[in-house]
Amino acid sequence: MELKDITYRNSVKKVLRTIRAQSITTQKKISFETKLAPMTVNNIVRELNEQGIIREVSHETNLTNHSSGRKAMWFSINPHFCYAIGVQMKISSMQMILYNLMLEEIEKSTVDIDFYNMPCVEGISKMASSLAEFIEKASIAKGKILGIGIGIPGTVDHNKGLIYEIPKLVNWKDCRLKNKLENELNVHVSIDNDIKTPVMALIWNNKVNGNIAYVHIKECVGAGIALGGKIFRGNKGAAGEIGHITVEPNGKQCNCGNNGCLELYVTDEAILDDIRQNATLPSDKLLFELCDGDLKRLNIYKAIEAVHQNNGTAMRAFENALNYIIIGIDIVCKTYAPNEVIIDNTWLQLIDKYYYHIIENLHKNNKFFRRSDVNYSFCDMENACSAGAAVLILKSLFE
Length: 399
Fold this sequence. Notes:
Nucleotidyltransferase, domain 5, 14 helices
């Protein structure tokens, strides 16, 4: 869409934001919400409709245009005007999801790529070929794809499209991922940290607002921070790297180079390792039965089942992790003072007593904020990282 000057561009985006926020609306409502003159709104809506970015829709209402006596025309975003691809890069795989303009999933694929054992250049080539195949399979013309957003498990410069470092991938340092993928695919690419992108998705879907802390505790640990509804990245995009806060100065060595990092004690794998190291027969017969006699088969769901059946070894492992999690969330809350804390964790959702234990201890003897000052919830958005990566692209139409 051709935009002739900055004022008109801002007006167009303001109209688009209003239509998206209201799902379905009229020119009169758009004019009221945006404070734009009715004639300006009429011209913008007409052009957007002609371009196919919005569409006229039927709506069961008796609302009329009182100046003419005609029924008002209703408009909504055309979800299929263009698309964005949201990608979550992991250590040994990559998830790709095609989204329409309303952030609805259209196509999804996950491919195994062993990034750990390949140099950066080869890894990018694998990413590019996988994305090219995904686009071809989706049968979407390249011109309809607005761009590709990627959530990276490391520190990045969002503006430059540069990966500074991925702690678990020693070959991925100072990697210009954005430029290299754009050259190979001829599609706009945007990258960000994989713990920050879920926050973008939550904000985009109006699930949260204000000062937000999204705390991810699964295969890795980190916090995505939004202040005043805007992502806070900090210097070199490193804000929220709570997984590498030292909680045990003389503790285990982390792959980041430090000792005693929080991530070493609270991830799913850390809990499973604790259970494996301490399980013995005959007292832990239940654990061995759940794993058909092989503790290597133990997963987080089987460990949760052991807790529900009051297995002492499993309970101690989770409770050890709880104490460290409280430290991590406490630091986030006292540093950023969020009004919303969204926790993304499997076992806290499935073991109520542990969740309530964390909340109670966060506010025990806390002189800085009351329990009622903070809303705690779990992340209920599927594929939040990939969705937020797609938002990196979609927001260019609206902001």
